[in-house]
Each structure stands twice: as C-alpha cells, then as structure tokens.
Amino acid sequence: MKLHDPRPNKGSHTPSRRLGRGHGSGRGKTAGRGTKGQKSRAGGGIPAWFEGGQTPIHIRTPKLHGFKNRFRVEYAAINLARLSDVAPGTLITPEVLRHDGLLRDQKTRPQPVKILGGGDAPRGVTIHAHAFTQSAVEKLESVGSVAQLISWPDGAPVERTPEMAIEAPASEPAPEEAAAAAPEASNETDVPPAADESESES
C-alpha cells in the first residue's frame, strides 16, 4: 500500500452535481432551475420571512414595549373623597362598598380593595381594606379614623405590614433584648463560710 492508495469510506464523500453540461447530463440548459422567474436568476431567491406580499408576522405582531409583571396584584381602588360623606362611627368594609356600588363590577373576577388618598377623609370611621396608600393612612389618622388591613381572600384582620404605618398592638420584646435587659447572673456559687479552726479542734 502506498500513500495514494487509501480512499475514503464509500458514501462519506459525494461528488458535487455538474450543472449546465448538456441534455445528456440530465441538468443541462436551465440546470434544474426551471424557466424564468425570480428563483431562476443568479443571486435570486425568496427570503425565509417572505409571505407572498401579505403583511408578514413580524410586522403584524404587537411589539412588547417594556415589562409587565405577570404576578402583579390588581386592586379595585377607591379614593377617600367618595367616602367623605359617611357618618361617624360607621364600619366600612369591601362588602359594604360593593353593595353600595362604589366598586366596579366584580362578579366574574373579585379583586382586593385598596384605599387611595385622594380627597378629604371621613371622620371617626373604621375602614377595612386589603391595602392603603401612605397618604390615605395619614389623612385617616389625622381626623380620628381607623385604617385596618385585612388579608386576601379570607378577609382576616392583619396587624401591620412593613409598608404601612398602621398602629399595631405592642409586641413582646425580642429574646435578645430581654436577655440584655435582665441583670447578669453571677457565675460564683454560694459557699458557706468555713468554720473556725479552734471549733474544729474541739
């Protein structure tokens, strides 16, 4: 065997087609391109995104400008101005607001209620809602009203949240603070005084 004897495996290399070499080759004259037209020309062809002249999909698809959080919480918002005529001592809950028609239609998709700070706050009322803006809380506290957070969807009362400045009952001090406030225990153990030597000898 010599250096020019090795050959590639059968089928691993396929000779390129010879186009335009006469009728006998099977690909003469038009060289397999057909007659006339855009695709028969040298350098001609149709882009992959071309759709025959109609508006292509990358043009008719709405563009996504910016970011929209798919896990956002949509609130049914209401301003304090719509509650300014409520009599003092009234308890305002989401059920009351829906019954009085102050919230948009929520038959198909109930939403948590958020109180906004627009307008004057009602005096001496208690409002239960799932969220309050900081301005709403300040206005309610300034006129002696109470803003009480409730959870969603069961409506149980919530003591406080980091975002809200709602008064909460005083909590017990943390274990670290209690330990620091307590007097330090002495490590010395109480040892009874030793008896006199004279008494021990007697």
Describe the structure.
The protein is α/β, with parallel strands linked by helices and 202 residues long. The protein has a domain of 83 residues: Ribosomal Protein L15, Chain: K, domain 2, CATH 3.100.10. It is 15% helix and 11% strand. It has five helices and seven strands; from the N terminus they run H-E-E-H-E-E-E-H-E-E-H-H. It has a four-stranded mixed beta sheet. A three-stranded parallel beta sheet has the order 1-3-5. A hairpin with a 6-residue loop joins strand 6 and strand 7. The protein is rod-shaped and about 105 Å long. The termini are far apart. About 8% of the residues have low confidence.
Gross morphology is rod-shaped
Q: H/E series, N to C? A: HEEHEEEHEEHH
Assign the CATH topology of the domain at 76-158. Answer: Ribosomal Protein L15, Chain: K, domain 2
Report the radius of gyration as a whole number of Å: 43 Å
Counting DSSP E segments of at least 2 residues, the number of strands comes to 7
How are strands sequenced across the largest beta sheet? 2-4-6-7
Topology:
Blueprint: H1 57-60, E1 76-79, E2 91-92, H2 94-99, E3 113-116, E4 126-129, E5 131-132, H3 134-142, E6 146-150, E7 157-158, H4 175-181, H5 197-201
Parallel strand pairs: 1-3, 2-4, 3-5, 4-6
Antiparallel strand pairs: 6-7
